[in-house]
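If you are new to this repository, start here. Below is one unmodified record pulled from the training split, so you can see the exact layout before writing a loader.
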Amino acid sequence: MKATYDTIGLRYNATRKADPYLFEQLHALLNPKKDGVYVDIGCGTGNYTHEFHKKGYSFIGIDPSKEMLLQAKARNSTIVWTMGAAKNTGLAENSVDGRSLS
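And here is the target side for that same chain:
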């Protein structure tokens, strides 16, 4: 089944970026540690995942859209990007220290 964002996400990043205020709110609520591993569920093209990475945090980006993940990987290939969804992340139980829903 093709994810909705495989179609509408083709030009997603042309008009979208991480909002600094929202990033600070996510950062405060998640309170990540530099030695932790976190997952961004529904990461899309990875705008917020990338912002956390720039600050030195280890994040895994998960999204059901192949197109969105292709754009995320093109922006930053050092982050782990994988297909999945909140119901089925494909990650082993207790393999991450926190989750953020973008």
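Two things worth knowing about this chain: The longest helix spans residues 20-30. The radius of gyration is 13 Å.
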